[in-house]
Amino acid sequence: MAQWLIKNGHLIDPANGLDDVMDIRIANGKVAAVGKSLGAEMGDDVIDASGLVVSPGFIDIHCHLREPGQEAKEDLLTGTASAAAGGFTTILTMANTRPVIDQAIIVAGMKYKIQTDALVRVEITGAVTKGLEGKELSEIGDMAQAGARAFSDDGYYVNDGRLMRAALEYASMFNLPVISHSEDCCLVADGVMHEGCVSAKLGLKGRPAEAENIAVSREIMLAEMTGGHVHIAHVSSKGAVDLIREAKAKGIKVTAEVTPHHLCLVDKTIESFDSAFKVNPPLRTNEHIVALIEGLKDGTLDAIATDHAPHAYEEKDCEFNEAPCGFAGFETAFSVLHSCLVKTEQWNLQALIQKMTAGPAAAFDWKDRGHLSVGGLADLVLIDPKKEWIVDPHAMLTRGKSCPFTGMEMVGQVVRTMVDGKWVYQDGKIIRN
Ligand code: DOR
């Protein structure tokens, strides 16, 4: 197995408190040494990482790989290629596939396919309810035993509080989180964007922020009641941030994530009627963005998650009201946040990396991920923080070619990704081992 000595990179490893120009040696798929001026050992391939940032591989606790069943949108190979290009070495895929991942046999099938097709580590979410129908609890225990790492009906809110209670109780027996897509179904009804001045002006039906706040309140109360771990997916409203902050202060087991698009885009973009901006929960306003950034800074929000949700181009290429929600997110996530928040001095690179590595690992108690400890997994990423590029979805590896950041100028890009001591991505190209 190849050995690597990566020299002179700016190593940022928040879990280990490292932020300095250092070398890192990789051997046998593990981190063999981290330090200043490490000498090459026999068989080492030396890489000069001067000017580059070396980070633990990113962890995305929310994505959609569309396999099984919707391979025209994405599959395990294209999805994980896209993840590798974005610097993600572990990703958690959601259950809203066809069939829905709601039985142990489907989890087992996925695990088998992941072994042959995936370029990065893929963890599996099982559905909370059978068929995501919100009527009957799925086989939570069996799926946990088959290897599911979380449970979620993402895409839908579990409207029946009794079922959500049972899911939290059941999942807590396996120390696993239940991920909530928190939007009250009745309040959002058939809304297609954030409810506010822009929706009124455009004559489009709105999804009020209160729908999210109300849904989050129930989840927090159920987590307190059951002692289970609820994780709030794609937080997008100021009210939700306030509620989660308060719940954490009370010691309730709640964690939360926020996406790059909710941090960097507003509802006003929809004045173009471009369906690339259609997503659930919807893009909101600056007031919400300010609260989300505050939530990241004070620890209310634990992680950045992409909600990578690719759709085939022709599905998105239609009238705004008819288009499906979501878009690809792996390949733009780091660059968008680096360009919009770090380069503008609203945030710093160390904190951004923390929320893409140690933060998600801690939220889901994935102790072996999100750090570059000696003896630990050699999952890492090299980033060129000065690289300028323009987002062009057709140059991306995902099948989801609809992207709300199309044409935007970026500063900073992932240039190499290593999983298990092997390079899987370098300068726009996938490396199959
Ligand atoms: O916009 C979204 N798309 N939000 C979700 O929660 C689900 C996702 C999808 O699966 O397309």
Automatic annotation (TrEMBL):
Residues noted as binding substrate in the record, renumbered to the chain: H64, L65, R66, N96, N280, H311
GO molecular function: allantoinase activity; dihydroorotase activity; zinc ion binding
Dihydroorotase catalytic domain ranges (all copies): 53-238
InterPro entries: Amidohydro_3, DHOase, DHOase/Allantoinase_Hydrolase, DHOase_cat, Dihydroorotase_CS, Metal-dep_hydrolase_composite, Metal_Hydrolase
Cofactor binding, per record: Binds 2 Zn(2+) ions per subunit.
Enzyme class, broadest EC rank: hydrolase
Protein family: Belongs to the metallo-dependent hydrolases superfamily. DHOase family. Class I DHOase subfamily.
Hydrolase keyword on record: yes
Cofactor(s) required for function per UniProt: Zn(2+)
Name of the gene this protein is made from: pyrC
Active site positions: D307
Role played: Catalyzes the reversible cyclization of carbamoyl aspartate to dihydroorotate.
CDD domains registered for this protein in UniProt: DHOase_IIa
Keywords noted in UniProt: Hydrolase, Metal-binding, Pyrimidine biosynthesis, Zinc
Pathway annotation from the record: Pyrimidine metabolism; UMP biosynthesis via de novo pathway; (S)-dihydroorotate from bicarbonate: step 3/3
Positions of the Amidohydrolase domain: 345-425
GO biological process, one term: 'de novo' UMP biosynthetic process
Catalyses which reaction(s): (S)-dihydroorotate + H2O = N-carbamoyl-L-aspartate + H(+)
Organism expressing this protein natively: Limnobaculum parvum
PANTHER family documented for this protein: ALLANTOINASE
Pfam families: Amidohydro_3 (PF07969), DHOase (PF12890)
Domain of life according to the entry: Bacteria
Organismal lineage: Bacteria, Pseudomonadati, Pseudomonadota, Gammaproteobacteria, Enterobacterales
Protein name as annotated: Dihydroorotase
